[in-house]
Specification:
binds FE2/S2 (inorganic) cluster; Elongation Factor Tu (Ef-tu), domain 3; five-stranded parallel sheet; alpha/beta; Ubiquitin-like (UB roll); 18 strands
């Protein structure tokens, strides 16, 4: 048996400003935690903070490489302020070197599944560059025979996040890194590089620069419509589905509620945890917790309202931090953007999305 992931207090080594108000936050990883924070390029960290009295968690992709963790004992995440983004606006303005942040160990499936890929391609838009930067840099540093092509969508060149880091990589690996900037609000000499990354753009890139057969592995990260259009165009053109990996960012659904609505939702989940028609057992750190819940409620909401300290981040079916194993009973998930077929076959569920369909449900957070 393993145990559910926990937050660890990490010290901020440095906060570096990036384009358009974004920041890159470097976290020091002390010796006892180095093994726990080992990661694969493309994974993310879940950060937690109390902001205006609210417990806020958010997942951010690691943008640094494994060599930096090994040599300088640091992990770096990139955060771009979003309109109405509680965590991103706070983090990009308030955090400074020496502050402490609660951080959960690396997680996520947006990683290379093909270790010997000779040509990897990334399609990124805006802050979607963060996980792809780590994959791209690691590919160039660790695999001298591999090439990387980055198609990167932004409004203008001055809003390109990590532009300096990308230019440095281009200088270091001129023949192995191809950078293709697609700009929506800045004139470009070539039509192909003007506009947004959408289905037409991807088809045009395949026709001119990126033949289907040359792409051993493709990584896509950006806003939802960009991910869907890019993935659809690639699959339509004949790229094998197992070679295409996507990563979605989302905001927790509860944060969209007003404080009063949030309180009402929590109160109703508390009542459900005491009086609901379904018997729910939550196993955490080897201990079973007996609760009740209603069929329309979700396992994570009820168990959190009952006071259990469970791992979660997005609450939107995207990050997988809330993964648990269904040991007894049945549930239906509203959304699942992340669990793979083998995981659902083995009974893993996203507890933030799981609603019971049987009168008795047992879930374990100890089966990772
Ligand atoms: S908390 Fe992110 S998938 Fe459930």
């Amino acid at each position: 048996m393993s145990t559910a992931p926990r937050f660890h207090d990490l010290t901020i080594a440095r906060v570096n400003p990036e384009a358009a108000g974004a920041v890159a936050i470097a976290l020091q990883i002390p010796e006892p935690l180095r093994e726990r924070f080992a990661f694969q390029p493309g994974q993310f960290l879940t950060l937690r903070a109390q902001i205006n009295g609210q417990d806020v968690r958010r997942s951010y992709s690691i943008c640094s490489t494994r060599s930096r963790l090994e040599n300088r004992h640091e992990l770096e995440v990139g955060i771009r302020p979003m309109e109405g983004g509680v965590f991103s606006n706070w983090a990009s303005t308030a955090l400074k070197a020496g502050d402490t942040l609660a951080v959960m160990p690396p997680d996520g499936r947006f990683v290379s599944k093909k270790p010997r890929a000779l040509h990897r391609v990334g399609f990124a838009a805006g802050s979607g560059i963060t996980p792809i930067l780590s994959i791209l840099t690691s590919t160039l540093e660790d695999q001298p025979e591999s090439k990387f092509t980055l198609v990167y969508g932004n409004r203008r060149m001055d809003s390109v996040m990590f532009n300096e880091a990308l230019q440095d990589l281009k200088d270091r690996y001129p023949s192995r890194l191809t950078l293709i900037h697609v700009l929506s609000r800045q004139a470009q000499e070539v039509d192909l590089l003007q506009g947004r990354i959408d289905g037409d753009k991807v088809r045009a890139l395949i026709d001119t620069l990126l033949p289907v057969g040359s792409m051993d592995e493709v990584f896509i990260c950006g806003p939802e419509p960009m991910i869907e259009a890019t993935e659809a165009a690639l699959l339509e053109a004949g790229v094998r589905p197992d070679r295409v990996h996507t990563e979605r960012f989302t905001s927790p659904t509860l944060e969209a509620l007003t404080p009063a609505q949030r309180l009402a939702a929590t109160e109703s989940h508390k009542v459900s945890a005491l009086k609901g028609s379904v018997a729910l057992t939550v196993v955490l750190d080897g201990k079973p917790h007996e609760l009740r819940m209603n069929r329309e409620d979700r396992v994570l909401d009820v168990a959190l309202a009952a006071g259990l300290d469970l791992p979660y981040s997005c609450r939107g079916g995207v990050c997988c931090t809330c993964r648990a194993k269904l040991m007894q009973g049945s549930v239906l998930m509203d959304k699942n953007f992340t669990l793979e077929p083998w995981e659902t076959e083995q009974g893993f569920v996203l507890s933030c999305q799981a609603r019971p369909t049987s009168d008795q449900v047992v879930v374990s957070y100890d089966e990772r």
